[in-house]
Amino acid sequence: MPNRRQPNASLRAALAEADWSHAQLLRCVAQIAAENGWDVSHDRSVVSHWLCGVQPRPHTARLVAEALTRRLNRAITPPDLGWSDGPHASGAAADGCQGAAAVSELCAAEADPRRAADLRATPYQAALARPTPWTAPHPARPRSPREAADRVGTAEAEEVERMARAFHQALTSFGGAHARRSLSCYLREEVTGWLRADSGEEAHRRLLRGAAQLAFLLAQSCVDDLAHHLAQRYHRLALRLAREADAPDLYAVTVRAMSAHAQSLGHHRAALRLAAAACEVPVPRGQTGIRSFLLAQRAVTRARAGERRAALADLDAALEAHQAQQAGSAGPFVRYPFAALAFQQARTWRALGDTDGAVAAFQTSLEHRDGGQYRPRVLAGAALAELHLLRGDVPEACQAADSAFAEGLRLQSARTARDLALLRRRLSGYRGSEPVRDLLRRHPLPRRAAPRRLV
């Protein structure tokens, strides 16, 4: 006899617990897909088909599971709904690994075309955007000298630190997609071996710290490339490595980055919780640049939550901490540039409804940015142009947009491309203005891939 599909009792029970209609489920699925930059389309009948036993595609099953996870406030997976999670499940195995094994597993997954496609087809998971308090690492077990033929030490640790600075510069100058593959390859093929090799305690700690920095930069590159689930995985890997390195400063920086990531996707409560958790990490007292970096993000999240007094207090404290930075401190994980602080001040003022204050702060940020830092310059310029449009200052908006469009051509950044496309659409509403027509003629719409269609 032919096999008959069995009704999906698990999905029906989950829908009943969620108190959702078919249309409500599909609206949430579409919202999550849009959040991740995906183009989806369903009609209402598809839910009936699923309830009758039809198996959706793996990426669709994950979207449904994520929708129900957010609704029910507990983890729901495709198997919980009676579905398969696909042949190349999303790479969560790395979450259970330690140190070198976690680096190797996740980087290898991204290097494999099928597994990488699977990771990219997994949505941002709200359950992963929860703060975990800092805890000091357990004493490391002695490593066997037989795990590597050669002993590694200071030279390898210094190389990893130099490479972290170089990859940070590449991200800042040219965007997340520019050197992401090279960064992942370097972590997998070089750093993993050194982490497993015999080394002295101090050299191994420095290698772990450098690996945490590289994993952090991979996460930020994925955020910039709108690969949101991959970014979450690399952020979690950076947290693990920072803890193993006994580096609370890097741990706090990573939690702060997770807050900014959540905020960029509209998860403002999660962003506030993460920003608060980052400020609770016991960062060494002398690292005032890190403290300024953490407080500036908490100011933005508090402003979005309507906590005006607390947000302004955080801005004042962030500025005070920034001014207390030691003159000789340098490096992306030590010193907080004033241009970056001014950018956060602008975002805080904008969230508080002070357009004039935000405009002034964005202009200050641009004035203090080096000409080669194209990515932050484009983000600030596009935001400034939008604020000028809100105030009705069309010529000033065109001036800011002109620089942003020109510098945006140097970037390999999905995030800045998205922001510039949005700015272009808003400028199109002012085509009656000669400065706008001239601007759009000089900066024609660049060729772009169509939104990724998953279902």
> Runs with pLDDT <50, length 5+?
145-149
- Nearest-integer average pLDDT: 90
Number of DSSP-assigned strands: 2
| Side-by-side strand order of the widest sheet | 1-2
In DSSP terms (H or I, runs of 4 or more residues), the helix count works out at 20
Structural class: mainly alpha
Question: What shape does the CA trace take?
Answer: globular
Radius of gyration, Cα only, in angstroms?
23 Å
Structural summary, described in words:
This protein has 455 residues and is mainly alpha-helical. Among the domains are: 9-81; 91-115 and 153-246, no CATH class; 353-447, Alpha Horseshoe (Serine Threonine Protein Phosphatase 5, Tetratricopeptide repeat), CATH 1.25.40. Helices cover 64% and strands 1% of the residues. The chain contains 20 helices and 2 strands. It has helices at residues 9-18, 22-35, 45-51, 58-72, 99-111, 113-120, 154-174, 180-196, 201-224, 228-244, 248-264, 268-280, 288-304, 308-323, 338-351, 355-367, 374-391, 394-408, 414-428, 434-442; strands at 38-39, 452-453. Strands 1-2 form a two-stranded parallel sheet. Helix 10 packs antiparallel against helix 11 and helix 11 runs antiparallel to helix 12 (268-280). The radius of gyration is 23 Å and the shape is globular. The protein starts with 8 loop residues before the first helix and ends with a strand.
From the structure above, extract its key features:
455 residues; mainly alpha; two-stranded parallel ribbon; 64% helix
Report a brief summary of the structure.
Helix 2 crosses helix 4, helix 5 runs antiparallel to helix 10 and helix 9 packs antiparallel against helix 10 (228-244).
